[in-house]
Write a structure and sequence with these properties.
- The complex is a heterodimer.
- By secondary structure, chain A is mainly α.
- Helices cover about 90% and strands about 0% of the residues of chain A.
- Chain B has helices spanning about 5, 10-35, 40, 45-70, 75-105.
- In chain B, helix 2 packs antiparallel against helix 4 (about 45-70) and helix 4 (about 45-70) runs antiparallel to helix 5 (about 75-105).
- The longest helix of chain B has about 30 residues, at about 75-105.
- Classes of the chains: A mainly alpha, B mainly alpha.
- At the A-B interface, helix 1, helix 2 and helix 3 of A face helix 1, helix 2, helix 4 and helix 5 of B.
- Chain A: It is a multi-pass membrane protein.
Amino acid sequence: MSHAFLGAALVIAQLLLVLGMACALLRMLRGPRAQDRVLALDAFYVNAMLLLLAVGLRSDSVLYVESAMIIALLGFAGTLAFAKFLLRGEVIE
Amino acid sequence: MSLVDALPPWAAVLVGVLVLLGAGFACVGSLGLLRLRDFYQRVHAPTLGSTLGTFFMVAACVAGFSLAQGRPALQVLLIGVFLTLTTPITLMLLVRAALYRDRVEDGRQMPPPAPGDEG
């Protein structure tokens, strides 16, 4: 009974996270200005990282945790670079 | 034998509730990102996912892996620590860039820069 609850909870959590990724993707496509798109990219990779953690729990593999950590690292670097570009790229124009 | 079957019943319920809470917070944050009107309102929404969502999901992973393997699995905590450290840096820099762009390009009524703040 409780194991069925955990299985269902993991599936529902994955669906919720995919829904969150879809929302972020929609905002990234729609976003009126560049900073909206960068913010949506940030939310997108956080959701993807949480989805990897849920997949790791479901398939009982710590390997997914390592890849989630890599996504967190590279996503931070990417968003930081984009924000820096928005701040500095305009100075040159 | 997967992790779901290896857990005792109370731990399965605990991990399930934690996973649902984490995913729910992340989903609500992304919905807010889609629905709110202004960039300065929208910047608040995804932090729900990167603070509370990550906290609950990391707690679920620590509890699940530790109880299933019988030894502490603490490497997941690194993700929580790392995201807690980096999210404020990213978002403050992004808001600074947005403020700068709004002041330069739009001519919208933005508050003037604080003294000593290069923005």
